[in-house]
């Protein structure tokens, strides 16, 4: 449970440990300690600022989980911090450790790959059913003409199918298929025959029930061990929101698997969060509490590790749409909390609130991107034309 603290929020900056140093830093982002605006920090524990200044991302996230500070709009707080690059001016011990571990070890090895399935995706389908759209699409929606989360997710799924040029009878492989949102949509709307790879038993069980009667099959397998001899060929391959779990030491194996599984005239759509620079490690708090062993790729990392097997036909960035998607998930999570709290404690609620809003802030600040990349084995003769988006 989060701490129930009664320390007065009316304390002046000079009365708070580390208050003056923190306020000098926060002035660069127009954030006030105990201010009146939605993005201002409200301090509830006398050591909160000292903990944040000393521990960086871990200190910020864990102290919120412990109830040491409040903020009405954490998403805007994080966005302002990142736009002002304050994260580069405070302690970053967790980030350096994460980068060192990523350099020395394969954190996404076959043996470790199943951790994220157990730690995140198997939390409980009740949580995700409350938070997500009816298709259970746990990735960025496409909001160009959408007004609701349901519309944005259907638009994203349709956009992926149109970019792939799906037609009835085509065989589609979905690498990291989640609850099967793309496969169900592709089978229902485009007549595709689908195979999906997952490392989450809960996702496979739920997805198989929802896809009953459709030409959709879930396979519980790590991508590296799938189709080792290349005998199985698919007309199209998609991977939506899974590449973030692959890791730089495995990118070549990932693209090699996609290439051996794709027909010579096929297309591969990769949908992934990306970062602006080629640095190892991810946010230490996210790695510890949300996505164990996660890693965000850069443009350079994708380009250099895919070039042996693929030609890049199209690269589409709609990162700001993830801000809106995450805030829609947050609104649904909050609305559902009265019935979810029977299964999750208050500290989990604060962790999840921080996760969703913090991530929204990273996309609002343009620190993170969302890419859809279309690749072909040898280049499309006459060129590839992206459908109208």
Mind explaining what this structure looks like?
With 389 residues, this protein is of the alpha/beta class. It folds into two domains: 13-100, no CATH class; 108-319 and 366-376, 3-Layer(aba) Sandwich (Rossmann fold), CATH 3.40.50. The chain contains 15 helices and nine strands. The strands form two sheets. Strands 5-4-3-6-7-9-8 form a seven-stranded mixed beta sheet, sandwiched between helices. Helix 2 packs across helix 15. The chain is globular and about 70 Å long. The model is unreliable at 112-117 (pLDDT under 50).
Walk me through the topology:
Layout: H1 19-26, E1 42-43, H2 48-65, E2 69-70, H3 74-83, H4 93-104, H5 110-113, H6 115-121, H7 125-131, H8 149-164, E3 171-175, H9 181-190, E4 193-198, H10 201-210, E5 216-220, E6 234-240, H11 251-261, E7 262-275, H12 284-289, H13 299-306, E8 311-317, H14 320-340, H15 346-364, E9 368-376
Parallel strand pairs: 3-4, 3-6, 4-5, 6-7
Antiparallel strand pairs: 1-2, 7-9, 8-9
């Amino acid at each position: 449970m989060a701490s129930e603290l009664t320390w007065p929020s009316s304390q002046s900056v000079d009365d708070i440990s580390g208050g003056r140093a923190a306020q000098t830093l926060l002035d660069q982002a127009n954030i006030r300690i105990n201010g009146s605006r939605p993005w201002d920090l409200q301090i509830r524990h006398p050591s909160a600022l000292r903990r944040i200044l000393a521990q960086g991302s871990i200190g910020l996230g864990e102290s919120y989980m412990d109830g040491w500070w409040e903020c009405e709009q954490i998403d805007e707080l994080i966005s302002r911090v990142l736009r002002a690059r304050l994260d580069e001016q405070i302690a970053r011990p967790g980030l350096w450790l994460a980068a060192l571990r990523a350099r020395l070890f394969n954190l996404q090895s076959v043996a470790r790959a199943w951790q994220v399935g157990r730690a995140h995706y198997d939390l409980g389908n009740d949580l995700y059913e409350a938070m997500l759209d009816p298709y259970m699409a746990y990735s960025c929606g496409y909001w160009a003409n959408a007004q609701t989360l349901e519309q944005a997710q259907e638009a994203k799924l349709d956009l992926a199918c149109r970019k792939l040029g799906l037609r009835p009878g085509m065989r589609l492989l979905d690498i990291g298929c989640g609850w099967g949102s793309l496969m169900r949509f592709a089978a229902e709307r485009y007549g595709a025959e689908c195979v999906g790879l997952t490392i989450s038993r809960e996702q496979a069980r739920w997805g198989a029930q929802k896809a009953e009667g459709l030409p959709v099959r879930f396979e519980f397998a790590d991508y590296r061990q799938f189709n080792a001899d290349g005998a199985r060929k698919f007309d199209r391959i998609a991977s939506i929101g899974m590449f973030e779990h692959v890791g730089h030491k495995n990118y070549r194996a990932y693209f090699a698997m996609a290439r051996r599984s794709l027909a010579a005239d096929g297309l591969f759509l990769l949908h992934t969060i990306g970062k602006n620079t080629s640095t190892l490690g991810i946010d230490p708090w996210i790695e510890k509490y949300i996505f164990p062993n996660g890693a965000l790729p850069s443009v350079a990392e994708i380009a250099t590790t895919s070039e042996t097997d693929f030609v890049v036909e199209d690269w589409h960035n709609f990162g700001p749409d993830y801000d809106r998607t995450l805030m829609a998930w947050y609104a649904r999570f909050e609305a559902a909390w009265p019935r979810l709290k029977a299964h999750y404690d208050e500290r989990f609620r604060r962790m999840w609130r921080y996760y969703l809003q913090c991530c929204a802030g990273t996309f609002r600040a343009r620190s993170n991107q969302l890419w859809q990349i279309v690749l072909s084995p040898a280049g499309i003769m006459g060129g590839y034309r992206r459908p109208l988006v």
